[in-house]
Specification:
The complex is a heterodimer of chains A (283) and B (272). Helices cover 77% and strands 0% of the residues of chain A. Helix content of chain B is 36%, strand content 22%. Classes of the chains: A mainly alpha (283), B alpha/beta (272). Chain B: Its EC number is 7.4.2.1.
Chain lengths: 283, 272
């Protein structure tokens, strides 16, 4: 480091002989930690003094505004968010499984179709899909998405999630050892039967963690349903919070809605972790 | 008379690598045939061609009078008559032992649940793992898993059993359990084609031993002859290396040089 330390001893191929340094790495690390703690505490204290807590509370955590959000935030908004995202997830998974099998198929046109679909819809923003769905009745006169507003919302989320699920499931299917399908086939099972009974069940276990992420992403994307111009009984969490925030001129409903999202996503992550551990034991 | 297995001029290539270079042989009803040979000699590929897990590049495979290499054959139906046991067991890890043995009976043979369970338990008892019915495969030792795999194949009432190095992935002290199950099967008259490195098993149980090297059959005959008194230099070198792993084969260099040339390092191949 300094001339002195360079000259401290005969420098071997790995630098100066250890033990001659003036400060051991452990001591140096301890001092560096101490400095970091001091800075951190100072920053927290400064922020606590500077912040206008009262103003913040008035705008983001006003109790009587928060009360207005109940019970509709659960009975209408959360319910709809779950309907949109579970619907999109279920149909998206089925579509994704079909696309994954097509992409791995030996039939070349199937592979092409699946590849094009995945590349296109994985690359487009979900919002764009919703805007396009809005124009469907114009493009195809007389056509209506079955299920009305719910149908439109679920369709949009399905289109997007199918593309993602296809890639996730393909990775899962390919992660199942080849010997599994070989064992199934040599027991006389057909290709389809061995997929259904042996390969797909194991692939689903493998994809639990990425699928949880997929569902959480979908739950958040369901907020885009608001661009379909939903109202009344069809509103989901984000639109609900935004509307109430406008009428009360206060951000508290948005905070309530945010907490409601976390109420779903955090336990979900925990549940997926447990499921994964249980499955890992069975392997 | 029809043979249980009849293979004619079998060739198999993976890309430009020719693994089988024209193999002819037969297995008769009730016979136990052991295939031995160095790794890379094509013996596993040969076995996998018998139930068409590998599609032969050229040649004819006939099992029980049905030509499997006929493009219009119902391969699923044909495979029902063939039991296969793999080196790595390949049990279904998401099912219990009992379900492993039942699934193909139920889905392929369309047996009722009770009948399938009865047959599954019978076969699991027969291989000595009847107490493990409700365990999952990863909870079992390798030897137990391999015996479950044998029971799974037997539950389909196969006419022929194929074994692909069934003891190679096992700890040495577990090999005996699996071999004794196979010995019992042979005594009961099962037709068996076994790829193995267990020379004592081959010598004792086999009706015929086939020695393969470099994608061809070098020598075949009764075990006393092939293992006890091999006629070909390559067989002699191989056996000496297997039976005495410290042997490096120096005195046979001139004869084994070309055989060793195309292979990955086997112990002692540095000499060739």
């Amino acid at each position: 480091m300094t001339d002195q330390s360079m000259a401290a001893g005969p420098a071997g191929p790995a630098g100066p002989v250890p033990g001659r340094a003036r400060m051991s790495p452990r001591k140096r690390q301890r001092i560096s930690r101490g400095v970091q703690y001091v800075v951190l505490v100072a920053a927290v204290v400064a922020i606590a003094f500077v912040t206008n807590w009262e103003g913040l509370a008035q705008n983001f955590a006003k109790m009587d505004v928060a009360k207005q959000a109940f019970p509709d935030v659960f009975t209408v908004a959360l319910k709809n968010t779950i309907i949109y995202s579970v619907g999109g997830f279920v149909f998206g998974s089925l579509g994704g499984l079909l696309l994954a099998l097509m992409r791995m198929s030996s039939v070349r046109p199937y592979r092409w179709i699946a590849t094009v679909y995945i590349e296109v819809f994985r690359g487009l923003p979900a919002l764009l899909i919703f805007l396009l769905i809005l124009f469907l009745p114009l493009a195809l006169p007389g056509f209506e998405v079955p299920g009305g507003t719910y149908g439109q919302g679920i369709l949009g989320l399905t289109i997007v999630s199918a593309a993602y699920m296809a890639e996730t499931l393909r990775a899962g299917l390919q992660a199942v050892p080849k010997g599994q399908a070989e064992a199934a086939r040599s027991l006389g099972m057909s290709h389809t039967r061995s997929m259904v009974s042996v390969v797909i069940p194991q692939a689903l276990r493998i994809v639990i963690p990425p699928t949880t992420n997929q569902f959480v992403a979908l739950l958040k994307d369901s907020s885009l349903v608001l661009f379909l111009g939903v109202s009344g009984e069809y509103v989901e969490l984000t639109k609900f919070g935004n509307d109430l925030a406008s009428t009360t001129a206060n951000a508290t409903p948005i905070m309530v809605v945010g907490l409601t999202y976390l109420l779903v996503t955090i336990p979900l992550g925990y549940l997926a972790g447990r499921l994964e551990k249980r499955q890992a034991k069975g392997r | 008379m029809t043979h249980a297995v009849e293979i004619k001029d079998l060739h198999k290539s993976f890309g430009s690598l020719e693994v089988l270079k024209g193999v002819d042989f037969t297995v008769d009803e009730g016979q136990v045939v052991c295939v031995i040979g160095p790794s890379g000699s094509g013996k596993s590929t040969l076995l996998r061609c018998v139930n068409l897990l590998e599609q032969p590049t050229k040649g004819k495979v006939t099992v029980g009078g049905v030509e499997l290499t006929d493009p219009d054959v119902d391969i699923d139906a044909a495979r029902r008559r063939l039991g296969m046991v793999f080196q790595s067991f390949n049990l279904f890890p998401h099912m219990t032992v009992l379900q492993n043995v039942m699934i193909a009976q139920r889905r392929v043979l369309k047996r009722g649940k009770q009948e399938a369970e009865r047959i599954a338990r019978e076969n699991l008892d027969k291989v000595g793992v009847g107490a493990k019915c409700d365990a999952y495969p990863p909870q079992l030792s390798g030897g137990q898993q391999q015996r479950v795999a044998i029971a799974r194949a037997l539950a389909m009432d196969p006419a022929l059993m194929l074994f692909d190095e069934p003891t190679s992935a096992l700890d040495p002290e577990l090999v005996g359990d699996v071999l004794s199950v196979m010995r019992k099967l042979a005594q009961d008259g099962m037709t068996m084609l076994v790829v193995t490195h267990e020379m004592s098993f081959a010598r004792e149980v086999a009706d015929r031993v086939v020695f393969m090297d470099g994608g061809v059959i070098v020598e075949e005959g009764p075990p006393g002859q092939v293992i006890g008194d091999p006629q070909h230099a390559r067989t002699r070198t191989f056996l000496r290396r297997v039976l005495d792993p410290t042997y490096s084969g120096d005195d046979d260099t001139s004869e084994t040089a070309d055989a060793d040339g195309g292979r990955a390092a086997t112990p002692g191949s540095a000499g060739g």
